[in-house]
């Protein structure tokens, strides 16, 4: 993301985004024209979150090893990013975000929305051995 180009999310947009998760998969068709505004908002949120994560990684690399700052990213950020990618039907990125959440969140099994989204990704890839 260009430094001059900053994304801002309004409180209304954040409210709409907070209500979106893996439960809407299959019901909220973001590829259709009837949800064009929601799709644009989700794409904006994905761009914002990914830009934020890239910025944090760049700041961590820029710090000298002795003066390293510990920047903590809430694992829920990756989970929400996974939900957004799932709703956009970008299964590879959704799976990546869910796996990052899985690795960072010790109690990941207590989050049913994460488990449902991860299960949908596994189902998409036929990766569900019994």
TrEMBL record:
UniProt keywords, alphabetically: Nucleus, TPR repeat
Keyword Ligase attributed: no
KW Transmembrane helix (keyword) present: no
Main location (coarse class): nucleus
Residues in coiled coil: none
GO cellular component, one term: MLL3/4 complex
One term of GO molecular function: chromatin DNA binding
One GO-annotated biological process of the protein: regulation of gene expression
SUPFAM superfamilies hit by this protein: TPR-like
Record InterPro entries: Corepressor-Demethylase (IPR051630), TPR-like_helical_dom_sf (IPR011990), TPR_rpt (IPR019734)
Cellular compartments annotated: Nucleus
TPR repeats: 75-108
Membership in a protein family: Belongs to the UTX family.
PANTHER family named in the record: LD02225P (PTHR14017:SF1), LYSINE-SPECIFIC DEMETHYLASE (PTHR14017)
Record protein name field: Uncharacterized protein
């Amino acid at each position: 993301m260009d430094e001059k180009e900053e994304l801002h999310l309004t409180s209304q947009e954040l409210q709409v985004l907070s209500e979106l998760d893996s439960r809407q998969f299959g019901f909220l068709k973001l590829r259709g024209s009837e949800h064009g505004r929601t799709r644009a908002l989700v794409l904006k949120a994905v761009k914002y979150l990914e830009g934020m994560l890239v910025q944090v990684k760049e700041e961590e690399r820029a710090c000298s090893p002795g003066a390293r700052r510990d920047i903590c990213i809430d694992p829920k950020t990756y989970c929400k990013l996974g939900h957004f990618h799932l709703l956009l039907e970008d299964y590879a990125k959704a799976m990546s975000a869910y796996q990052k959440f899985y690795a960072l969140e010790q109690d990941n099994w207590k989050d049913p929305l994460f488990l449902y989204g991860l299960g949908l990704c596994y189902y998409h890839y036929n990766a569900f051995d019994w």
